[in-house]
Design a protein that fits this description.
InterPro entries: DUF34/NIF3_sf, N-reg_PII/ATP_PRibTrfase_C
Strand order of the largest sheet: 2-3-1-4
Radius of gyration: 15 Å
CATH topology: Alpha-Beta Plaits
Keywords: Signal
Strand content: 25-35%
Shape: elongated
Protein name: ATP phosphoribosyltransferase
Signal peptide: 1-19
Structural class: alpha+beta
Largest sheet: 4 strands, antiparallel
Number of helices: 2
Organism: Diplogelasinospora grovesii
Order of helices and strands: EHEEHE
Helix content: 10-25%
Number of domains: 1
Length: 112
């Protein structure tokens, strides 16, 4: 794993969907920490509140078109070693996540 680019995958999901989303991204290779400990399924999560207003063409999993919605969500952060792992993890997240448009971002991690 030395020399591979690392990324942090961060996503938000309703509490009931977090286990399925984590299982999917871990199966895709996310959450493996490089080093002698061979740690897998590593992540950090916290409960917060998400807010959105579904547009007129939306088919929301939670909420109503045109109405501002605020709902509990869990923020999950994990490591992806290598661009291919990050891409596979995002693809797996999109398939496992119940939202029409899951909120996520991928950030390149620098080693110092």
């Amino acid at each position: 794993m030395a020399g591979l680019v690392k990324f942090s995958l961060i996503f938000y999901a309703p509490p009931a969907a977090v286990a399925a989303c984590k299982a999917a991204i871990f199966k895709a290779g996310a959450g493996r920490y490089p080093g002698p400990g061979n740690y897998t399924e590593c992540c950090w999560s916290t409960l917060g509140s998400g807010q959105f207003r579904p547009g007129t063409a939306a088919s929301p999993h939670i909420g109503t078109v045109g109405k501002l919605e605020e709902t509990p969500e869990v923020r999950v952060e994990t490591l992806c070693v290598g661009e291919e792992v990050a891409r596979r993890a995002v693809e797996a997240l999109k398939k496992a996540h119940p939202y029409e448009e899951p909120a996520y971002h991928v950030v390149r991690v620098e080693d110092f």
